[in-house]
Amino acid sequence: MNVRLMIESSKSNKAGECIVYVEVSITRDGKKKTVRIPTLTKVPVKSWSAKSQSIIRNKVKDYYKLNQSLGEQKDLVNEIIADLLSKGKFELVEIKNEYKRRTSPIVHDFFQILDDFIELREKKMTHNGVKDFKTLRSHLINFEKERKSKIILSEINNTFFEKFEVYLYSVKIEYKKEDDEIIYRNLADSTIIKNLQTLKTFLNAQNDKGMPINKSFKRYKIKSKPQTELITLEADEYKLLLKPINNERLEKVRQLFILQCSTGLRYSDAIRIKKSHIRNNTIYMNAQKTRQKLQIPLNTNSKEILELCDYDTSNITISNQKYNDYIKELCELVGIDSEIMKISYRGNKEVQELMKKYDHMSSHHGRRFFITQNLINGIRPEIIMSMTGHTDFRSFKKYIAVTETNRINAMDVWSNTFK
């Protein structure tokens, strides 16, 4: 039995390259039988030496590594032959089949890998920290069903991203209006972009682990999020919330919301405050979402709220969903009812929605008000960031909202300066 590396020069491509084969030949009963096993290596015809069964020195870049790899393929075939011989008589085609089996890429179960990734994230992050990956998983499952082909980790490339983005634009989400009428809306552009960015984050993490990744996905350009005007409380609107109200349920909501507005804390941190977190009139705690150390001096508003709940916010805590619903009810009750135009983007369409300001309010606006108002008050960004736990300005600036009053005041200052 003879095993050698060879090429078929007559079958070269337009670039003058040929596939390198491992050829196995055997003579039985006076008849020579041969099987040729293609490797993954192509070489220029003029660079190949039939005598040495290798690429000629310096004829090809990295010739040494290529020859080493081809030698390993030849060794593998010899190993397969030895294994088959130990089991008795065999046909040449069995060598080729076994070679294919041993060199075929391992197809990992994509969703098992994603689930393992999410499980690991859950141990390190809060529920909100992994929510984006769970949402992505749901969309990918439905995308796989629509395209009727399993998602394979190593096959996620530039084209996959393009098709997945097109799919996301076709997705419709069910919404229930106040009168229980059900309507369906396409995903907002910002939501689609978030899913694509989350998929890239997952793939980069797998690449760092050494998993089989098609790195061409890195070339896929995710368009920038459409810039929409951020909505926040005006100072006068915030003052409407400072007065206690005669409604036990909404009074607890008011206290918690004022605490967020006056400390910049996320909901997940605001509801965890205990007496042990307060030292020298300052809140000391680690942010649950990011694990960043927070140091937030108390002001008159935050101190008043903490005194009302005896420095234990579990006394005023409700579920996040109900809290967001009740904030809207609270803001309507105190008169935060100006009309605003909410603008979002779906595909190539700008969607405008006229709504009352209280309908837009949520716990997120407490943190935004804290940051925006401190900037208006002249506090330097790095000082505010040290209280909110932001480590870079890029994420910090997402919370900065410029109101109509801010613009008018800016031009009043200009007019007073140059009158």
Beta strand count:
12
Task: Provide the β-strand percentage band.
Answer: 15-25%
Strand order of the largest sheet: 1-2-3
Shape: elongated
Mean pLDDT across residues: 85
Radius of gyration over alpha carbons? 32 Å
Helix and strand composition category: alpha+beta
- Number of continuous helical runs: 15
Span between termini: 101 Å
**Largest beta-sheet characterization:** 3 strands, antiparallel
Percent of residues in helical segments?
A: 40-55%
Low-confidence segments, ≥5 residues, pLDDT <50? none
Describe the secondary structure blueprint for this structure.
Layout: E1 2-7, E2 17-28, E3 31-44, E4 48-49, E5 54-55, H1 63-86, H2 92-103, H3 110-124, H4 127-147, H5 158-170, E6 172-176, E7 182-186, H6 189-208, H7 235-240, H8 248-263, H9 267-270, E8 278-279, E9 282-286, E10 293-297, H10 300-308, H11 320-334, E11 339-346, E12 349-356, H12 364-376, H13 381-388, H14 393-396, H15 404-418
Antiparallel strand pairs: 1-2, 2-3, 4-5, 6-7, 8-9, 9-10, 11-12
Helix pairs in contact: 1-2, 3-4, 4-6, 5-6, 8-10, 8-11, 8-12, 12-13
